[in-house]
Amino acid sequence: MSESGGLGRRWLGAPTLFAVIWTSLASAIYFSLGVIGERALGLTPLVFLVAGLFFALTAMTYVEGASLHQERSGSTVFARYAFNELWSFVAGWAILLDFLILVAVTSLSATNYLAVFWSPLGGGAVEFAACAAIIVYVAVRNIRGFSATRARRVGALVIADLALQGLIVVLGLILFFQPDVLLNPIELGTSPEWEDVVFALTLATVAFTGLESASGLAGELRVGRAALRRLITSAAGSVIVIYTGIALVAVTALPIENGRSPLEDELEAPVIGVVEVFDPPWLGEALMYIVAALAAVTLVAAANSAMLGLSRLAYSLATNRQIPQRLGRLHSTRATPFIVILIAAGLAVLLVIPQDLEFLVGIYAFGALLAFTLAHLSIIALRYREPRLKRPYRIPLSVRVRGGDLPLPAVLGLAVSAWLFLTVVVFHDPARFVGMGWMLAGLVMYVGYRRSRDMPIFARVQVPEAALRSEVQRAEYGSILVPVFGNALDDDIVQTAGRLAADEGDLDDGHGATIEAIWIFEVPMSLPIDARLPDEQLKQARAALARAKLVGEEYDGVEVATATVRARRVGQAIVEEARRRGVEAIVLAAEEPSRIRGGARFGGRGGPLDNYVGDATKYVLQKAPCRVILTAPPAEVAPPDPAT
Predict the structure, then answer these.
(1) Are 25 and 56 in contact (CB under 8 A)?
(2) Which of 448, 443, 463, 66 has its CA nearest to residue 232?
(3) Span 401-421, mean pLDDT?
(4) Which residues contact 65 (CB under 8 A, 6 or more apart)?
(5) Cα dihedral angle (13, 161, 109, 5), rounded to 10 degrees?
(6) 148, 151, 157, 162 alpha-carbon torsion, rounded to 10°
(7) C-alpha closest to that of 257 among 181, 333, 346
(8) Which residues of 279-294 are buried (b: 16+ CB within 10 A; e: fewer)?
């Protein structure tokens, strides 16, 4: 694990999980209130209440799925185990769109709140430049990685934000709440129209991406069953109370008049519009500046969380060969997918250019609801496909149907999300065209990439994390000889050769280096060199060479050629094959415990090496016609001497 916060394993607890979820939830109210209030009018509190209940259903689904398969990336993992890689990609690609939009939306909203302090930030070129600066900052922070210090800062921000939003709810209800002001303007079906109410409900799902960001930390969490239950209760309860409370304050502080909400004039910073009317005036002014400052910080933190989720999702897609491996390349020291983060930052900047919040939030709903539909459906399917797997958290209220436990909350969540997704597709043209275009482009890329690599469309294909790491040097070797012996070190030496062979300049052109993997049959002097070999040895050789080919060709641009060789001595055979094949390097595993860790190059002959390696290795080091790269495990897992 990188200390700088890469993608390695570390243990985070329930508070960190809640903080990551709540940064998205808290930030969403700062920009979604105006867009939803414009559509839902007097029913805005009801829309947020229903959205809070839907969030509770979705949270239960995500927590069961993440606890069942503790891999990064939420719905794409659930769909992989429930169905296949194609559906896994569909879920992941939809959420990638949402993460991109969320980075753009939160950055845009942050500048509108900061405009309280300097008005030019509220529009034009200055606003665009500020948005771009925030996105660049977010990209840099995520390339550096998610550290424990950053988690503590996010936790402190969550506490401050909960306190401020709770204060707004309490003061607003005391100052403004009157049932008749809330209810009198409502004319069901007319003000608002049902179509607008339904669309407002789809927009409320903008807050839920925090579940995907939190699921991206699944492999780094240590949270017990009771803590998971408390997490769902606290997150869902906070959403319902805060969202519904602020909506009640907004509708009563800024009453609906003639079928129009004053929030329409405050679309980009709606909470500022709400607190400005607080009495006495000094209270409204003080709250305006406090809200502006904390909202801006929270929105930037939410952009960070969205980019965090995006980076982990992209890592998952790259390691599962669902997007080109080059896009998921990890930083050499930070172990973060820096290429995809930089690309995402560039796309987010482009999304900011129209400066149209409602347009972006509408497209967001398309991807979110598609992913949530697949998530609920996947958890239902997994109850039947993997009924005996341990589930640290299990969705309550299950009924026995056709030999399996059907989780009713997931069924209800599936029905709601599928219905809302259909309404977005039918009634919102930008979401339909942009969303469908995004998904179609992704499917073309996925199928084309897999076909070009002769990989199956529906089956899972993985590469190790090492294959995504960015090396400091370019490839030095066009051909490498790798003797394999059917032991635990084979994968290690083939991966070492693969990293040396993979040319970073031509990762996806199909032309790279060659690994010559050989198995040496050491034939005793008492037998002819062409004597019949035992079937068991032949079987072992074929299995080892097949494994070497599979592991080596996980590195793009690398081809693995396999062969068997008969010889009297292993060391002599390696040297002769290297000379005959004209390879540029030999990657070899030492046969005995040594002080070498992770591979080293040797050019000496004899001397101190006698203390560390066996006869075959010493012979190769002394006689090889090319450079030898020696790898060695810790002493306790050293393999047996292949020369004996």
Answers:
(1) no
(2) 66
(3) 92
(4) 74, 75, 77, 78, 215, 375, 378, 379, 382
(5) -30
(6) -130
(7) 181
(8) eeeeebeebbeebbeb
The C-alpha angle 56, 59, 61, rounded to 5 degrees, equals 115
For residue 476, report the phi and psi dihedrals to the nearest 5 degrees: -105, -15
SS3 assignment, position 601 = strand
**Can you tell me the mean pLDDT for 544-565?**
84
Contact between residue 92 and residue 101 where contact means Cβ atoms under 8 Å apart: no
pLDDT classification of 93: cutoffs 50, 70, 90 = very high
432-443 pLDDT tens trace: 899 999 999 999
pLDDT of residue 2: 36
Mean pLDDT of the chain: 80
Strand partners, 589: 631
Beta strand 600-602 with 559-567 is: unpaired
Q: What contacts 166, CB < 8 A, 6 or more positions away?
A: 242, 245
Q: In the 8-state DSSP scheme, what is residue 506?
A: G
DSSP string over 185-246 = T-BTTTBS-HHHHHHHHHHGGGGGHHHHHHHTTGGGB---HHHHHHHHHHHHHHHHHHHHHH
Which two three-digit tokens encode residue 245?
Answer: 């409370």
DSSP string across 50-75: HHHHHHHHHHHHHHHHHHHS--SSHH
| Beta strands 514-522 and 600-602, pairing class | unpaired
Residue at token pair 């000889």: 481
Which pair of structure tokens corresponds to residue 312? 């982990």
Q: Are 522 and 571 in contact (CB under 8 A)?
A: no
Closest by Cα among 283, 261, 287, 256 to 272: 287
Do 627 and 600 meet the contact criterion of CB atoms below 8 Å apart?
A: no
What burial class does residue 68 get, using C-beta atoms within 10 Å of its C-beta: 0-12 exposed, 13-18 middle, 19+ buried?
Answer: buried
For the chain, helix (H) and strand (E) counts, in that order, are 20, 8
Question: Three-state SS for 400?
Answer: strand
Token pair in block for residue 25: 């939830």
Residue 140 has pLDDT above 80, yes or no: yes
What tokens does 317 get? Answer: 């897609």
How many Å is the Cα radius of gyration of the chain?
Answer: 29
Residue 584 has a pLDDT of: 82
The side-by-side arrangement of strands in the sheet containing 559-567 is 559-567, 514-522, 479-484, 585-589, 627-631, 600-602
Q: How far is it, in rounded angstroms, from Cα 314 to Cα 309?
A: 9
The DSSP bridge partners found for residue 602 are 628
Q: Which pLDDT value is given to residue 160?
A: 87
Report all structural domains of the chain as residue ranges with CATH numbers, in order of start.
14-448 (1.20.1740.10), 471-637 (3.40.50.620)
Say which residue, 463 or 4, is predicted with more confidence.
Answer: 463
Q: How far apart are CA 321 and CA 359, in angstroms?
A: 32
Q: For the segment 180-225, what is each residue's pLDDT rounded down to a tens digit?
A: 888 888 887 787 888 888 888 888 876 666 666 555 444 445 555 5
Type of residue at 283: L
End-to-end CA distance of the chain: 37
- Average of pLDDT values for 264-276? 86
The β-bridge partners of 515 are: 480, 560
User: Stretch 273-299: mean pLDDT, rounded?
Assistant: 92
Neighbours of 524 (CB within 10 A): 7
Most confident of 25-29, 98-102, 623-627: 98-102
Higher local confidence (pLDDT), 373 or 579: 373
Q: Average pLDDT of 85-94? A: 93
**What are 4-13's pLDDT values in tens digits?**
344 444 444 4
